[in-house]
Amino acid sequence: MEKTQNNRAWFLVLPVLVLVAFSAVIPLMTVVNYSVNDTFGNNEFFWAGLDWFDEAVHSDRIHGALLRQAMFSAIILAIEVPLGIFVALNMPKKGFWSSFCLVVMALPLLIPFNVVGTIWQIFGRGDIGLLGHTLAAIGIDYNYTSDPFDAWATVVVMDVWHWTSLVALLAYAGLQSIPQAYYQAARIDQASRWAVFRYIELPKMKGVLLIAVLLRFMDSFMIYTEPFVVTGGGPGNSTTFLSIDLVKMAVGQFDLGPAAAFSIMYFLVILLVSWVFYTVMTNLDRQEAK
Amino acid sequence: MRSRSSALVMTFYLLFLMVPIYWLVNMSLKTNAEITGTFSIFPRELTFRNYMVILTDPSWYMGYVNSIIYVVLNTVISIAVALPAAYAFSRYSFMGDKHLFFWLLTNRMSPPAVFALPFFQLYSSIGLFDTHIAVALAHCLFNVPLAVWILEGFMRGVPKEIDETAYIDGYSFPRFFIRIFMPLVASGIGVAAFFCFMFSWVELLLSRTLTSVNAKPIAATMTRTVSASGMDWGVLAAAGVLTIIPGALVIWFVRNYIAKGFALGRV
């Protein structure tokens, strides 16, 4: 659509600007302030320059959390995206069962994050949980509170349970927008199932899949509540991801300076990824408009 | 043949989704003695005690009331400010519009953990700590950008000729917006409201940091079940089930729009 050039439109945007500035810019400035100051309490601050950043960049603790975070995001993306596409391809296209699938699949998305954690905590426990009990019954030694591998497996399966439906729903919406004529043409050409997927369905899903991948990347990159409830970041530090580490540092130990420096770097990473996301997406929008 | 294997795949997937939820419901209908003592797929002695505990104790059920109050406040604020902004983004190009849009997006993507401490200090210093409005405003951080994005996606689909015709017919902007334009994007408003509701409902980190007693959300109240006499698993499970219900009730109405909402109006 051709847009009219009109700078008075700013007045319409003003309420949003004020509100978001209040809840984003002011807190962010506080963080910046902390990140360059040192304090010994009593609201007295001393200029610390870039010391905290220096410390954060060279801290093994943060490197560890970052590495675990990157691994976690990579694993869940590698599982959720193919699985989501696979589920979407198998969903009924219309009728009651299609609605039924949509509703059941959306259900995990609407459960408060800590309840998701609680569900899996209860489900996985060896003494009272169905999963823990079944695994023990077939002779697998499973205990997510003491074994790092089991803790990881639980957190990953929980995330797959929680969010695969998001990928599936988006991919499904992309599939629904493909006109029947495309499939008929493919049938006339005797295209294989794989060819139909590769040359018709996948290109048509490109836009929504991009959104799905990036949403999943962002949300997994700032995951906090679910692993915190299930494992509390443990055993040891094995499931301490970036957000968990940050909250531990800022609220638990009240190390404001390092925590703030850490926050800012964390935020910059997110900003960079958002920018890539935005650029790619607006380019896609423009291509479609042509 | 193909449809049968599809049905099989879907059955497995839906089972995978439902079994943990079933287990939670199962636990909520058992007595604590049965939960820890025996292992059963169905509750042997069906009991509603766990639900009664929650529904008769104000410190429990007020958690739900608090959650609902700040979620509704947040939804109303978010939609009210996002409507004109989304209209501006969908109709006009103005100085800095693309940058502003991008900046809004970054707020949807920023980790709440970064904001937890500064929010705590900000709202404490202006005397809003432990109030519903504080949580509602804090959740605007990610809900307002989301609402703007979703609404903009829906508004783009309304042809501009409608605006022009209305102005020629002598409508003023506010009258046109409320009488003609809003009914046209009603489904978009519904979807945006649903998503604001949902993200405010599921968020815990900020709402827990910003409250202590008076506005404490149900999700934070749930940590109370750990007591000296051990875990009260039954009540914990019942509280979990009760938090799922509001979401489950509204899903049916928006089932065809869920994907569009998650895709920020871009399907």
From TrEMBL, chain A:
Localisation per UniProt entry: Cell membrane
GO terms for cellular component: plasma membrane
Superkingdom of origin organism: Bacteria
Sorted UniProt keywords: Membrane, Transmembrane, Transmembrane helix, Transport
Transmembrane annotation, as ranges: 12-36, 70-89, 96-123, 151-175, 207-225, 259-280
Gene3D superfamilies linked to this entry: MetI-like
Name of the protein in question: Carbohydrate ABC transporter membrane protein 1 (CUT1 family)
Annotated source species: Gemmobacter caeni
UniProtKB/TrEMBL annotation, chain B:
CDD domains: TM_PBP2
Domain ABC transmembrane type-1: 64-254
Keyword Membrane: yes
Subcellular location: Cell membrane
Top-level taxon of origin: Bacteria
InterPro entries xrefs: BP-dep_ABC_trans_perm, MetI-like, MetI-like_sf
Pfam families: BPD_transp_1 (PF00528)
GO cellular component, one term: plasma membrane
One of the GO biological process terms: transmembrane transport
Membrane topology, as annotated: Multi-pass membrane protein
Parts of the chain that traverse the membrane: 7-25, 68-89, 101-120, 132-155, 176-202, 233-254
Gene3D superfamilies: MetI-like
Alphabetically ordered keywords of this record: Cell membrane, Membrane, Transmembrane, Transmembrane helix, Transport
Secretion signal, residue range per the UniProt entry: none
Family: Belongs to the binding-protein-dependent transport system permease family.
PANTHER family listed in its UniProt record: ABC TRANSPORTER PERMEASE PROTEIN, MALTOSE TRANSPORT SYSTEM PERMEASE-RELATED
Protein name according to UniProt: Carbohydrate ABC transporter membrane protein 2 (CUT1 family)
Protein's organism: Gemmobacter caeni
